[in-house]
């Protein structure tokens, strides 16, 4: 009975560890698959940029992002190795305990066989029964022999079950060691790929560094285009604020005319004056923060919000009122939430720009081609606005901005993780 209790207690402990490890393995495999998908997307983007033989900032940023994802994959593989190592240790401990239990069970069974043999030689079972002093003693002796026989059978079954469990654990150890060897091989390959990418990135930066004046000229032209874009967005926001306030003033005038004693609230000259429907739209848009869908189906942030260093030119700072998203050529650009198109404008250097209003919020999509919407049009969430434009370097990149009234927002705080 004591061996049976030991076996049950051990089985519960082992099952708990197995469930925890299994859950971690599932999560890890999902993370590896997701990261591999991102790597494949980046490979497609890089292949497109490499159709142009010239080094470009687009190539540098795409390969830089690829290096980051490669590092993540190596870290995930390292985590997988650690998990497998711990699992092997747990399985070896489980196997050792099963082997100890099996030895105890065999020893106890041997004692039973020996005791049974002694009884068989000293007493015949029938003579043992019929030599009883009375019927009660006969019944007790019969019950003893029956229980003894059943105990031997149970012990034999338990030995077989423990032996089977031990073989299963040993097979699992072998499987995990094989998996560990495969992970190690994959990790070595990924590290080689990483070194190749790093060298490629270094070479591209070196090539671009020799064209510093050309890059600076391109940067000045880009700054001019971006400045025009920012001015146009600011004008759109200011225009809509004025329109909403004029509408509000007319409503207030009508209200004052109808009720001279009513106190009219003070107007905010820097915010959209919203009616009930617009306020509801703005509230639902605000709830998207941190889980907003991306305007393109794949890609990565190639230029971040705010002031930051140029990826190639030292001591040169960039300032982005939104984020640039590098993606595949010909990718559709979709509106992130329902709203009204307030402007569709062509701006030299940034191609087409579409501004969509969502109550007192605005989302802006630029560097587009083949725009499919027009001014004043109502658009549904996920509706196509146009296609990402591809520049002469083969870089397909769009700019995405979020504004609340006249205040620029960081889109990275709005977009859901990818």
Name of the CATH class of the largest domain: Mainly Alpha
| Low-pLDDT residue spans | 1-13, 262-266
What's the total count of β strands? 12
**Which class do the helix and strand fractions yield?**
alpha+beta
Nearest-angstrom radius of gyration? 37 Å
Share of residues in strands: 15-25%
Overall average residue pLDDT:
82
Summarize the structure.
The chain has 418 residues and is an alpha+beta fold. The chain is built from six helices and twelve strands. The strands form two sheets. Strands 1, 4, 5, 6, 7, 8, 9, 10, 11 and 12 form a ten-stranded antiparallel β-sheet that branches. Strands 2-3 form a two-stranded antiparallel sheet.
Show the helix and strand layout.
Blueprint: H1 2-49, H2 57-122, H3 125-130, H4 135-209, H5 212-258, H6 276-286, E1 300-303, E2 306-309, E3 317-320, E4 323-326, E5 332-334, E6 339-347, E7 351-358, E8 361-369, E9 378-379, E10 384-388, E11 397-404, E12 407-409
Characterize the structure shown.
This protein folds into 2 domains: 2-209, Helix Hairpins (Orthogonal Bundle); 221-413, Glucose Permease (Domain IIA), CATH 2.70.70.10. The chain is 61% helix and 15% strand. The protein is built from 6 helices and 12 strands. It has helices spanning 2-49, 57-122, 125-130, 135-209, 212-258, 276-286; strands at 300-303, 306-309, 317-320, 323-326, 332-334, 339-347, 351-358, 361-369, 378-379, 384-388, 397-404, 407-409. A hairpin with a 2-residue loop joins strand 11 and strand 12. Helix 1 (2-49) packs antiparallel against helix 2 (57-122) and helix 2 runs antiparallel to helix 4. The longest helix has 75 residues, at 135-209. The model is unreliable at 1-13 and 262-266 (pLDDT under 50).
């Amino acid at each position: 009975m004591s061996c049976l209790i030991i076996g049950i207690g051990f089985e519960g402990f082992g099952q708990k560890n197995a469930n925890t490890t299994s859950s971690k393995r599932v999560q890890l495999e999902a993370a590896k698959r997701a990261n591999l998908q991102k790597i494949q997307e980046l490979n497609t983007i890089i292949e497109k940029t490499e159709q142009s033989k010239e080094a470009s900032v687009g190539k540098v940023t795409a390969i830089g992002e690829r290096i980051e994802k490669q590092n993540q994959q190596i870290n995930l593989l390292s985590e997988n190795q650690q998990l497998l190592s711990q699992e092997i240790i747990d399985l070896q401990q489980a196997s050792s305990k099963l082997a100890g239990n099996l030895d105890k069970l065999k020893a106890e069974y041997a004692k039973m066989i020996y005791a049974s043999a002694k009884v068989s030689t000293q007493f015949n079972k029938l003579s043992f029964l019929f030599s009883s002093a009375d019927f009660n003693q006969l019944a007790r002796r019969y019950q003893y022999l029956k229980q003894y026989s059943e105990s031997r059978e149970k012990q034999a079954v338990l030995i077989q079950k423990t032996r089977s469990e031990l073989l299963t654990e040993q097979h699992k150890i072998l499987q995990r060691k094989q998996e560990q060897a495969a992970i190690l091989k994959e990790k070595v390959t990924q590290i080689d790929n990483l070194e190749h990418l790093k060298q490629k990135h270094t070479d591209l930066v070196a090539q671009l560094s020799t064209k510093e004046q050309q890059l600076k000229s391109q940067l000045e032209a880009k700054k001019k285009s971006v400045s025009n874009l920012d001015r146009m967005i600011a004008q759109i926001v200011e225009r809509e604020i004025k329109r909403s306030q004029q509408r509000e003033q007319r409503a207030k005038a009508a209200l004052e005319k109808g009720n001279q004693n009513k106190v009219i609230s003070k107007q905010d000259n820097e915010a959209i004056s919203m009616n009930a429907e617009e306020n509801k739209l703005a509230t639902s848009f605000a709830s998207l923060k941190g889980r907003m869908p991306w305007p393109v189906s794949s890609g990565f942030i190639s230029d971040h919000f705010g002031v930051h260093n140029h990826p190639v030119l030292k001591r040169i700072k960039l300032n982005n009122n939104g984020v640039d998203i590098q993606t595949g050529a010909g990718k559709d650009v979709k509106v992130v939430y329902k709203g009204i198109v307030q402007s569709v404008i062509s701006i030299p250097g940034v191609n087409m720009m579409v501004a969509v209003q969502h109550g007192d919020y605005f989302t802006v999509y630029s560097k587009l081609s083949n725009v499919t919407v027009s001014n004043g049009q109502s658009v549904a969430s996920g509706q196509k606005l146009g296609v990402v434009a591809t520049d002469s370097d083969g870089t397909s990149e769009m700019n995405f901005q979020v504004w609340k009234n006249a205040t620029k927002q960081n889109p990275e705080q709005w977009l859901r993780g990818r």
